């Protein structure tokens, strides 16, 4: 099985586990930038360092194209910095991410974007409509959260956790954006990629005015289970083969990105 971290060397001051977590998360930020999903220096992706109660999150004020493993900020579940980083963190990101990490211990990565197609769908009463194969991974796996203003009040944390529920991996923030989660960075990223694709297809389909094909709930549930069980990647060396491919891509684009 391919080790996507084969070329990484853990620098002094970090455990191998933490450094690999930092490289993984930095790659996610870089790929968000690569696909053009960024909103200037805003939005956030957080990752729980395996075996710890600490999270990694982006430094507030850096473009995603500037993020490296070494400038990610380490915080605890209450949003307090636990390293000597000179960078601040975004309070709204702190409130959203720590809420979900604390409220759902099965979630290790939380990813939030304001992609314009996602924001358009988040403003529709009908919500997200799964219309094609990859979008069916979201069938009965999306929660919805009403807009309350910029998420700065910690009292909203309980409502965020209630909105995503105990089994959903995606949370549509109405009139705001979307959150995807996963047990690891690659899963959260893959879900975000497919959510953005799904929203774009939905908007184009609605604009066409054409009649929609009817897909049975049984077929959508089966397809979701195939994705969740790994059947969609059958034959690949790793569960999500796009992730090591992205690592190789980023090494070609910027040989110094993972420092």
In short:
By secondary structure, the protein is of the alpha+beta class.
Question: What topology does this entry show?
Answer:
Layout: H1 16-35, E1 44-48, E2 54-57, E3 73-76, H2 91-103, E4 109-113, H3 116-122, E5 142-145, H4 157-164, E6 170-173, E7 177-182, H5 185-208, H6 217-229, H7 242-253
Parallel strand pairs: 5-6
Antiparallel strand pairs: 1-2, 1-4, 2-3, 4-7, 6-7
Helix pairs in contact: 2-4, 3-5
Structure description:
This protein has 259 residues and is of the alpha+beta class. The protein has a single domain, classed as L-fuculose-1-phosphate Aldolase, CATH 3.40.225.10. It has helices at 16-35, 91-103, 116-122, 157-164, 185-208, 217-229, 242-253; strands at residues 44-48, 54-57, 73-76, 109-113, 142-145, 170-173, 177-182. Helix 2 (91-103) packs across helix 4 (157-164) and helix 3 (116-122) packs across helix 5 (185-208). The longest helix has 24 residues, at 185-208. The protein starts with 15 loop residues before the first helix and ends in a 6-residue tail after the last helix. The mean pLDDT is 93.
Note the main attributes of this structure:
single chain; 259 residues; alpha+beta; L-fuculose-1-phosphate Aldolase; seven-stranded mixed β-sheet; 7 helices; 12% strand; globular
